[in-house]
From TrEMBL:
The keyword Transmembrane applies. GO terms for biological process: xenobiotic detoxification by transmembrane export across the plasma membrane. Residues 9-391 form the Major facilitator superfamily (MFS) profile domain. It holds the Pfam family MFS_1. This is Bcr/CflA family drug resistance efflux transporter.
Length: 408
């Protein structure tokens, strides 16, 4: 297959990467309606979000070796078909336990899309190009928080929450058609790659113990856990505590996405003058200080709707600078094992996201504290890990000078 143009590649890869965020965000305005229909509570409904995060975290570890063994497209076909089937299954649920299980299965399918998209960026673009490509992907991905809750709110108001899953099934089908006909296979299947547990574990261990990988992977995953805490807590904070309507919540969610989108695109400009390490070194401490101020304001009872939106916007803006660079630096040392590296990165990201969303559900329903508390903890931890990890990377580069062009 002839390689399509840059724009088409970014659009398809971005659509694959956006499938999971869309699946997360679109049904958020319906939490209270789902709770009433299934005779449960809003925090219990939020466990279906946790189930999705757990599924996508576990599933990525499955798809990483499959992508390295069979190429990128065959496992992708399987995952997309599973996603469509689980989405349609959500139409028939009668209790919250069924919804949690089906959301878990839906996530297992969707993570094939996200892992394949990240691995194919590494396949199709150079290390120098990757941060800008990831920033472009962020533009496509970030459209989902702008469109998904708003569209979901209107869809739920007009037809009921089940229609969100009808829409998601059709969306996945359209992406699958684009993958089949317009996306080239970017990696030749490695028939020598063993799917036995021993070789897989050795491959994963070799990836996970690389200092550059675990430093920037942890930075990426921890800062994203703050985003998932926001996603899980936002229906409670905005609709329950501040009394915002479903459609109003969707518009707030869209407005906050502009901060993430805008700064991820500013990142492309900054890379003309600064390397990825420098951008992260400036953005991460800023995010930590912002989240600590947010926590202090919440603990003192000073927050209102507008100040809450402002703090979240600043956090997401910093994330827009951190994420494209941390993702590119995480995958930079790998060529042959890019699928496994992408899977480990995604698994840790979603695993910590699942943990953050579960922690949110443990707090009282009308508490605004979980969101800033989790944001502050993960941002400060990420900052400390970056400071320690960069020393380890420097030592490795000094011991193995050939790694310098990859590490920096």
């Amino acid at each position: 297959m002839k390689r399509p143009g840059h724009f088409v590649l970014i659009l398809i890869l971005g659509s694959l990467a956006a499938l999971s965020p869309f699946s997360i965000d679109m049904y958020l305005p319906g939490f209270d309606v789902i709770a009433r229909d299934l005779k449960t509570s809003v925090p219990s409904v939020s466990l279906s979000l946790s189930g999705f995060f757990i599924g996508i975290s576990a599933g990525q570890l499955l798809y990483g070796p499959l992508l390295d063994k069979f190429g990128r497209k065959l496992p992708l076909y399987f995952g997309m078909a599973l996603y469509i089937a689980a989405s349609l299954g959500c139409l028939a649920v009668t209790d919250i336990d069924q919804l949690i299980v089906l959301r878990f299965v839906q996530a297992i399918g969707s993570c094939a899309a996200s892992v394949a998209a990240m691995a194919m960026v590494r396949d199709l673009f150079t290390v120098a190009e990757s941060p800008k490509v990831f920033a472009s992907l962020m533009l496509v991905i970030a459209v989902s928080p702008m469109l998904a809750p708003t569209a979901g709110g209107y869809l739920i108001e007009a037809f009921g929450w089940q229609w969100v899953f009808v829409f998601l099934a059709f969306m996945a089908a359209a992406i699958l058609v684009a993958v089949i006909f317009f996306l080239p296979e970017s990696y030749q299947p490695d028939r020598a790659y063993s799917l036995k547990p021993g070789p897989i574990l050795r491959s994963m261990t070799a990836v996970a113990t690389n200092p550059q990988f675990f430093t920037y992977c942890l930075v990426n995953a921890l800062t994203f856990a703050g985003l998932f805490a926001y996603v899980a807590a936002s229906p409670i904070v905005f609709m329950t505590i501040f009394g915002v309507s479903k459609t109003g919540y969707g518009w707030i969610f869209a407005l906050l996405s502009v901060a993430f989108i805008g700064l991820s695109q500013v990142n492309s400009l900054l890379l003309r003058w600064f390397n990825s390490n420098k951008v992260i070194a400036l953005a991460l401490p800023a995010q930590a200080l912002i989240s600590l101020a947010f926590l202090a304001a919440a603990a003192a009872g000073w927050l209102n709707l507008y100040s809450t939106v402002a703090f979240i916007a600043l956090y997401l803006g910093c994330l827009g600078l951190i994420n494209p660079n941390s993702a590119a630096l995480t995958l930079a040392p790998f060529n042959k094992n890019a699928g496994s590296a992408s899977a480990l990165m995604g698994a840790l990201q979603m695993g910590l996201g699942a943990l953050a969303s579960v922690v949110v559900s443990l707090f009282p329903e009308k508490s605004s504290l979980p969101m800033p508390l989790i944001m502050a903890v993960v941002a400060v931890l990420a900052w400390l890990i970056l400071l320690a990890g960069r020393r380890l990377i420097t030592r490795q580069v000094e011991a193995e000078p050939g790694l310098s062009t990859v590490a920096h």
